[in-house]
Amino acid sequence: MVTKSLVKKVLLTTVLSAALVSQLSAGKEKKYILATASTGGTYYPVGVGIATIASLKLAKKHKLTFSAITSAGSGENVDMIDKGEVDFAILQGLFGSMAWQGKAKYEGKPRKNLRSVSMLWQNVEQFVVYNKVATTGNIMDMKNMYGKKFSIGKRNSGTRVSGQTVLGALDIDFEKMNLQFLGYGPSATSLQDGKIDGMNIPSGPPTSAVTNAYATIGADKVQHLQFSDADVAKIQKAYPVWTRYVIAKDTYPGQKADIQTIAQPNLLVVTKDTPDETVYLLTKTMYENLPFLNTVHKATKVMNIKSAIAGLPMPLHPGAAKYYKEQGIDIPARLIAK
Known about the structure:
By secondary structure, the protein is of the alpha/beta class. The protein folds into two domains: 4-122 and 266-335, Periplasmic binding protein-like II (D-Maltodextrin-Binding Protein, domain 2, 3-Layer(aba) Sandwich), CATH 3.40.190; 124-264, 3-Layer(aba) Sandwich (D-Maltodextrin-Binding Protein, domain 2), CATH 3.40.190.10. The protein has helices spanning 4-13, 18-22, 43-62, 74-83, 93-101, 158-169, 184-192, 208-217, 229-238, 276-288, 290-296, 318-326; strands at residues 30-35, 64-69, 88-92, 114-124, 127-130, 149-151, 178-180, 198-200, 222-224, 243-247, 259-271. Strands 1, 2, 3, 4, 10 and 11 form a six-stranded mixed sheet that branches. Strand 1 (30-35), helix 3 (43-62) and strand 2 (64-69) form a beta-alpha-beta unit. Helix 10 packs across helix 12 (318-326). The radius of gyration is 20 Å and the shape is globular. 49% of the residues are buried.
């Protein structure tokens, strides 16, 4: 069931035109909702792209429509899918692993109703701070944020959890910071206005919130903090979902050199009770229309059928598994739903 607050979000982010809806027989279409994150990141535009192409391709023949909604991110997405308020959701690999295994905030309460649909793209950690904070340019400069205002993401977001997990693995005490719990857009605006000294924006580059900050403030005044190999090793030991990632120079306005950071996979998940045919058709449509998704956001250019099941923390939904088998993908036993 969809709550009133969700209806408002759907109205703001609906991907179906009135003309398309009018083609459907009243009362026969099946509507699905896909939870994304805040508008300034990558989840939202990619989620809207997936919902748009799926609706355009499946509405008339199969009576299936999809709408993407905004949310606080992975944390809220798990809650909403658990309550039946949404059907699909985009999650960080870390959050997906925690939820499936029953770790961290899900201790003793694993979300065994979740099923994977596909790995999408990598979620890149982007700690952007003013140069006055970045004395060395390394992530350990976050200790210079003690006592200062730092936006770590919305309270119930994967952004907050991933940021705290990364910092905690490096023995950086985030509790000593004046934490601000803002979404991507508000974080960028607050940084531009000098209301905060740094922000945590894990997303697929180029990220609009980061682009806006660089363009408005200037690359001579703000920068990404970078990760050494030793930093990566410590983080992997604490939670082995992150790997090295390089943000190529010129990705952001005025960025003159590559940025050495880290990334974890993002994935599309669904409930186990969603019909096999629906998930099969969505998966098929998504991969047969990658050029369209590529025009929605550059992060999707890394998506391909060969890496569709890479790094998934939970079993595949049978509908998705059916499509991958048709494409000749060898599915390991751990990803086959019992």
